């Protein structure tokens, strides 16, 4: 069966790739600047915590990138030679050692960005062949950015807010770093959702209003969770790690029980489940097909209960004098933010979310089937020898995300 005509690589895809790498470099630069400030001021605890977030995030992203390169190198049409294909920095058996070395040096993610920009420039500006490879790269980058965001940007944002609360002051570099982290999270949300929607036909293409609504409810839910964790850390700084390591294994086990199959190896799948557990600490992320409405409700009820306990602990143990000016506003803002986020999320799924109204059949797709069925069925089951180079990893997430009963 032929693949449907997915949107080709466009100037907007190229713009997203350029902005993505600029955001990435700005985020890394602000992290290094802030770490240097902590070290020079003798604040070694903050320095170590920030360095730990950066290192864990970088190693995790490099591992995913390397796993995917190994998987992709086994695809039948992975080494097709086109003029644009030659700039793809990670292909070909001769480049395996160099690619491995770059990932060990924590440069694999950056090189993916550079490769995507150059290949996108060749496809869009020079009108060369290789659009399917450019789209393939952007899909992988969107997932890697999501992983990088929740492994580094979200914990780092909690750290920045905690430091400002602990010291009762906000230096310029702290504000810059907080803005960089927030920008990274916001851009990831839009970019990842847009990447998923590109698997659907043109008539289901992501609109600006839909993007804004999707962005808003994610921002409200994530922001309230991040601030709550930071508040808890401001009164019990060492217990926040205990809190995370008590909840994280439960999330990993839950991901395992849902039978995730995102990676192509057992080791890679456990890495994915561990990362999903980290993402769930801050935000809901659907990882399995089927009736996920119940799982989403269970998750949000758990997070509401957990965040309520953390917020009450902060209120009970807070410094009355230091927190007098903003206690009332936070107690109103945090619950209201989460409730508004849930309401806007419900609005999104009622009015903007394309639905798969019939179960996907691995056999023949009826002629009158909705476009979403055709797109999803072919995305996952497409023959890899076809000229269309479909990213099967992201196609699996599309099947999870765009179904009749899926909620997020």
TrEMBL record:
It catalyses: a 1,2-diacyl-sn-glycero-3-phospho-L-serine(in) = a 1,2-diacyl-sn-glycero-3-phospho-L-serine(out). GO terms for biological process: apoptotic process involved in development; engulfment of apoptotic cell; phosphatidylserine exposure on apoptotic cell surface. It is a multi-pass membrane protein. InterPro entries: XK-rel, XK-related_scramblase. The chain crosses the membrane at residues 14-34, 46-69, 101-125, 171-190, 211-232, 238-257, 269-285, 297-317, 329-349. The keyword NADP does not apply. Keywords: Apoptosis, Cell membrane, Membrane, Transmembrane, Transmembrane helix. Pfam families: XK-related (PF09815). It is found in: Cell membrane; Membrane. One of its GO terms (cellular component) is plasma membrane. The keyword Transmembrane applies. Belongs to the XK family. PANTHER family: XK-RELATED PROTEIN, XK-RELATED PROTEIN 8. This is XK-related protein. It comes from Astyanax mexicanus.
């Amino acid at each position: 069966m032929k693949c449907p005509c997915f949107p080709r690589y466009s100037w907007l895809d190229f713009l997203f790739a350029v902005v993505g790498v600029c955001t990435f470099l700005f985020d890394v630069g602000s992290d290094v600047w802030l770490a240097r400030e902590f070290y020079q001021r003798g604040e070694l605890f903050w320095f170590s915590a920030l360095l730990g977030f950066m290192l864990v995030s970088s190693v995790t992203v490099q591992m995913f990138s390397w796993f995917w390169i190994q998987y992709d190198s086994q695809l039948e049409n992975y080494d097709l030679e086109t003029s644009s294909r030659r700039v793809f920095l990670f292909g070909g058996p001769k480049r395996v050692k160099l690619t491995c070395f770059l990932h060990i040096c924590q440069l694999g993610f950056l090189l993916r960005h550079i490769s995507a920009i150059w290949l996108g420039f060749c496809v869009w500006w020079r009108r060369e062949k290789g659009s399917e490879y450019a789209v393939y790269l952007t899909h992988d980058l969107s997932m890697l950015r999501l992983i990088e965001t929740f492994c580094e940007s979200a914990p780092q944002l909690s750290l920045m807010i905690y430091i400002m609360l602990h010291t009762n002051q906000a230096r310029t570099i702290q504000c810059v770093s907080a803005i960089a982290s927030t920008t990274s999270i916001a851009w990831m949300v839009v970019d990842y959702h847009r990447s998923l929607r590109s698997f659907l036909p043109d008539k289901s293409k992501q609109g600006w209003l839909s993007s804004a609504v999707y962005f808003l409810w994610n921002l409200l839910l994530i922001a309230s969770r991040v601030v709550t964790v930071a508040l808890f850390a401001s009164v019990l700084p060492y217990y926040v790690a205990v809190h995370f390591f008590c909840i994280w294994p439960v999330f990993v086990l839950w991901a395992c029980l849902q039978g995730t199959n995102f990676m192509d190896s057992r080791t890679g799948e456990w890495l994915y489940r561990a990362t999903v557990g980290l993402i769930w600490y801050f935000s809901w992320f659907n990882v399995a097909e089927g009736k996920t409405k119940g799982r989403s409700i269970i998750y949000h009820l758990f997070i509401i209960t957990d965040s309520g306990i953390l917020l009450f602990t902060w209120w009970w143990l807070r410094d009355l004098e230091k927190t007098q000016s903003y206690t009332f506003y936070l107690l109103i803002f945090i619950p209201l933010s989460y409730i508004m986020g849930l309401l806007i999320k419900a609005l999104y799924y009622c009015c903007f979310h394309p639905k798969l109204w019939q179960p996907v059949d691995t056999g023949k797709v009826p002629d009158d089937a909705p476009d979403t069925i055709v797109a999803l069925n072919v995305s996952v089951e497409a023959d890899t020898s076809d000229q269309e180079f479909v990213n099967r990893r992201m196609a699996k997430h599309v099947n999870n995300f765009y179904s009749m009963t899926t909620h997020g």
